[in-house]
Amino acid sequence: MGDILSVYKVYPEDIEDIDKIKVSLEKGFGDPFKVAKLEIEPIAFGLKVIKLGVVFPDKIDGLLDKLESAIKSIDGVRDIEIEVSTLL
Question: How many folded domains does the chain comprise?
Fold first, then answer.
């Protein structure tokens, strides 16, 4: 038993929303989630995504779905893409 690190690309509905989304993500998601990485990354033609890494325990079922729902519920988030999820 250990922790899981999940890294997501968070796509904004509008590039103007990216800073507002980042501030919301910085607040975190409460226990047992810990934001491990948060940075804005250019992808192409002036478009940017937020790369978000979150660590949480693997022993509690349903946390991945809860995390993804929490990210998607943030105002201004168009979509998320999981880049990697690995056991630490």
Answer: 1
Domain containing 49 equals 3-87
For tokens 């929490």, the residue is 70
Please report the pLDDT score of residue 46 as a whole number.
87
The count of residues in the chain is 88
| Number of other residues whose CB lies within 10 A of the CB of residue 51 | 15
In this structure, what CATH number is given to the domain that contains residue 61?
3.30.70.60
Complete DSSP assignment for the chain: --EEEEEEEEEESSGGGHHHHHHHHHT---TT-EEEEEEEEEEETTEEEEEEEEEEESSSTTHHHHHHHHHHTSTTEEEEEEEEEEE-
| pLDDT recorded at residue 3 | 95
| pLDDT means over runs of 10, the chain (88 residues) | 94 95 95 96 93 95 94 97 95
